[in-house]
Amino acid sequence: MGFGTIQLEEHMKRVNLACFLAVPVFLFAAVSAHATLIPWSAELTPDHVPYEVDGLNGDEFGIARGAIDTDTLRNNWTVEWGNLTSLVFEAHFHEGPASVRGIEYLFAPFLREDEGLPPNALLRGSSSITGSDITDIFNGDWYIDVHTQLNPGGELRGWVRAVPEPGSLVMLGFALLGLVVLRRRFI
Q1: Mean pLDDT, residues 133-143
Q2: 9-27: per-residue pLDDT in tens?
Q3: How far apart are CA 74 and CA 174, in angstroms?
Q4: What is the 3-state secondary structure (H, E, C) of the chain?
Q5: Do 145 and 154 touch, CB atoms closer than 8 A?
Q6: 29/187 Cα distance (integer angstroms)
Q7: d(Cα 108, Cα 112) in Å, to the nearest integer?
Q8: Gap between the Cα atoms of 125 and 183, Å rounded
Q9: What span, in angstroms and rounded, lies between the C-alpha atoms of 42 and 144?
Q10: pLDDT digits over 44-69, tens only?
Q11: Per residue in 81-123, pLDDT tens?
């Protein structure tokens, strides 16, 4: 057992470490390549409405969550609001950048009730989207408005933001940790 055996053992340790660290990277790439759902969320508040909102009690809230299926081009969503000033008559997605005040383009209405919905409600549904709509979401160009009887211009508003999957972030973290370990070992 000479010098060559020690070199071979060191080489095998490096190969094993490299394989161990490569697995999360390949898993991350495989999951990303087959991922078809893009989760998103939006916090709906009166603070995001670009004009005066009447009759607020300070307890108004809204939250929207959903996922875009890139294979079927469907936007599946859940929107909840509570403690609003009056009945809700309209709620919908808009397309337009956060810097623009007002409506650029009405997109995918998900509520238009003649009788109105209560000030506390939960809605679920889905709508069709396009590839450019997905790009707009990543650019922050979608928002949700909730219109009430007392505030027909909108009482709640929130911008839709794509949310990274926690599993993808964990895999990326393992890959970065592996690179740090490799760098320290070979420096």
Answers
A1: 86
A2: 665 566 555 555 555 555 5
A3: 32
A4: CCHHHHHHHHHHHHHHHHHHHHHHHHHHHHHHHHCCEEEEEEEEEHHHCCCCCCCCCCCCEEEEEEEEECCCCEEEEEEEEECCCCCEEEEEEEECCCCCCCCCEEEEEEEEEEEEECCCEEEEEEEECCHHHHHHHHCCCEEEEEEECCCCCCCEEEECEECCCHHHHHHHHHHHHHHHHHHHHHC
A5: yes
A6: 27
A7: 11
A8: 49
A9: 8
A10: 999 888 778 888 988 999 999 999 99
A11: 999 999 998 888 888 765 565 554 555 566 666 778 889 999 8
Q: What are the distances in angstroms from CA 143 to CA 91, 106, 108?
A: 11, 10, 11
Task: Name the token pair of 78.
Answer: 């859940």
Which two three-digit tokens encode residue 111? 């509520």
Q: Which residue has the tokens 């010098």?
A: 3
User: If you search the block for the tokens 């990274």, which residue do you land on?
Assistant: 164
